[in-house]
Amino acid sequence: MPLLCLVYMIQFLDKVALSYASIMGLRQDTNLTLSQYSWLGSIFYIGYLVGEWPTNYALQRLPLAKWSSANIFVWGGVVACLAACHNFTGLMIARFFLGALESCITPSFSLVTSQWYLKREQGTRTGIWFSCNALSMIFGSVMAWGFARADARNSFSIEGWRVLFLFLGAVTMALGAILAVFLPDSPLNARFLSEQEKVMAVERIRSNNSGIGNKAWKFYQFKEALVDPLTWLYCLVSITLNIPNGGVTTFFSIIISDMGYDKITALLYGAPTGAVVMVGVLGVMYLGDRTGKRMLCGSIGCLIGLMGILLLWQLPMANKTGRLIGYYFVSVQIGGFTSVLSLISSNVAGSTKKSTVMALYMIFYAVGNLIGPQTYLAQDAPRYATALIVCTACIIVAVLAMLCIWAVNIRRNRANEAICADPSYVAKQNQEFLDLTDRENPAFYYTC
User: Fold this and answer.
1) Are 98 and 266 in contact (CB under 8 A)?
2) 399-434 pLDDT per residue, tens
3) Tell me, what DSSP letter sits at residue 128?
4) Which fold has domain 2-185+210-433?
5) How far apart, in whole angstroms, are the C-alpha atoms of residue 353 and residue 101?
6) What are the φ and ψ backbone dihedral angles of 212, each rounded to 5 degrees?
7) Distance in Å from the first CA to the final CA of the chain
8) Which residues cross the membrane (predicted)?
9) DSSP notation for 146-181
10) N or C: which end of the chain has fewer CB within 10 A?
11) How confident is the model at residue 99, as a pLDDT?
12) CA–CA dist 273, 327 (Å, integer)
């Protein structure tokens, strides 16, 4: 878990460093218009979209930890290359490859979570590593503030935003190397476990009815993933919650600066966002595991985010404090996305089906984040009313979709219970490890 947390923190920091750099002089030094800056936010997710399906295929066929660590090491080099960019074209190319390489990390960590933890633990564990996005916002804001102050004193021989990218690139490459050494591909080859402990680790997750991975690609599972209505409900949640997320993660420093705060203060004021989001996401995921109602708890996170958007949208521009508080609550809506992400780990069985559903979920994640920055129009500054209207509609749709997921899971559990209660039902020997899909296995229980 510490490894997952560290890497997830740095991947988010690498992604949103663009927002810090935007008010540290990047836009002026590279002659970017606001429209071009929006495209730097979107091109990352075009790269993510291109990389998502190949990386999910690779995660099923190749050693999980080795593939992930190789991607991390290379994307660290790409982050460092951002420091050498002098125009829009160079930045676009680097951001595209950064997105393509980062596309591996969320599916990879979801698979790790499903290999090591029980269903009742997976929501909280996913919340822990995913909430490190929020931790990176705290650390990143303070770090960028420090770099910006040093730059203002002419402490660097190059621009401060270039130093920021070089620093983050070096840290990421180091973490990639550490992950290659210490993260096992599965419990079966964990060097820190004895042979007896490896057996115990596998037996511990027997009740998940989802195995520990299978390298064979099975067409019938791929087809089942495409015709399962839950797959498309997951995807609907993914795109609708990430349209708001894409805009906020690209524009958050500009949003705070446009409230009337100076640029260096705006960097520092981004830090409390991380604390609010971390508490919100961890709270939502913990309650979801404790109550067994992840979708209902995830919906609460979405509604808190909706409250923040309404404050940003409706409060007078003169009310800087109220709008800043609203901004802090906006990103709590990502707790809904995390809840569904953890549900894919818990509720989708069959290696090919799981990798297919995860790929689709992350493709729609990329599409949503791609669209998000494009809703922030230059003529709408500084309130960005169009973006906030779109965000409001998206979160409402996401909550309705999550309630549908909850209802479908309850219905499927009742149907499975009826089959297992029939005296004629006989379970297959060791069916928990036969790589059956959730629809094939009547003993499968859906977390709600």
Assistant:
1) no
2) 999 999 999 999 999 999 999 888 888 877 776 677
3) H
4) Growth Hormone; Chain: A; (1.20.1250)
5) 23
6) -125, 20
7) 24
8) 37-59, 71-90, 130-148, 160-183, 268-288, 295-313, 325-344, 356-372, 384-408
9) HHHHHHHTT-SSS-HHHHHHHHHHHHHHHHHHHHHH
10) N
11) 94
12) 8
